[in-house]
Amino acid sequence: MGMILTGRRVAAREGLELGFVNEVAPAGEVMALARRWAQDILANSPMSIRASKQTVNKGLDEPTLADAYRNQSGYPAVKALFRSADVREGPLAFAQKRPPKWTGR
Length: 105
Fold this sequence. Notes:
Shape: flat
Structural class: mainly alpha
Oligomer: single chain
Helix content: 55-70%
Number of domains: 2
Radius of gyration: 18 Å
Number of helices: 7
């Protein structure tokens, strides 16, 4: 909150230490690192990504972590995910030791 209210700037390394930077790229390698992050995200179910983002964003409006966890099943993207073929495909692909085939349905 102090950083938000004061606008204090921090270097990437300090952001990493404070926990709001995921990774610091060596000079000249930021695009390669960004592409790797994008590939890692895109390897997951699009429905799972959507549900995760919605859970985090809507969870910020909940008074407690317990409330956020309890209420996540009411979020539309989470409901859609748990009714989808993707929710079964992930564990099945893992058990069969193969990459998942996400359908987004």
